Amino acid sequence: LTYFLLEKIKSTFKRIYPSQHTDPERKQIMSTNADKFLEVAAGELPEGALLEHREFDNPLVKRYATKEMSYLWSPAMKFSTWRKLWIALATAEQELGIDISDTQLEEMRAKLYDIDFEYAAKKESEFRHDVMGHVHAFGAAAPSATIQCQDNNCFIWCWSWCSGDSLLARFVCNAIAVKFWRRSDELLYQFEC
């Protein structure tokens, strides 16, 4: 899924900046960064990261939701997914020739799960926008890896809201499908015996 996102972003930018990705030596460096991104972005949150934000906070969730669903809709999952999208965007932009250094990408990957929720809430109230609050929180966590808000407003907002929530919905649907198939296998086994 993360590989799909990276390819989707790259194909979008190739249409916008078609002539900036022809140098073979640059392509080799960039594919290494794409591989590094895929390595960081694939999988679960690291053990011990964002522990206090791993549950979706709502009285109905506490009464009726499973731990897995609460985790999938949690702030930790939502905002780390946004950051994965931003890193994929920066990686694709670098591959297409936009001036983003390997050091900046490395810092972004290193700070993927370093989310300061208090700072993000402060910035959100200042800008009255949750995405911009978290963009600034990510910028504070990884200062050399500036996220260019003016040029990429459409991409940052669209990829965060639309794609981020779509990814979370897809994760939830996958979890439901797995539980459904397990339960149906159990029922079939009961009737066969």
Attribute tags:
single chain; 9 helices; mainly alpha; 193 residues; globular
Which overall shape is indicated by the principal axes computed on the Cα atoms? Answer: globular
Structural class: mainly alpha
Counted beta strands = 0
Level of helix content? over 70%
Oligomer kind: single chain
Radius of gyration: 19 Å
What is the H-and-E element order?
HHHHHHHHH
Distance between the termini: 38 Å
List unreliable stretches of 5+ residues: 16-21
Sheet with most strands: none
Strand content: under 5%
- Give the overall pLDDT as a whole number: 76
Counting H and I runs of at least 4 residues, what is the number of helices?
9
Question: Care to describe what's here?
Answer:
By secondary structure, the protein is mostly helical. Residues 16-21 have low confidence and may be disordered. Helix content is 74%, strand content 0%.
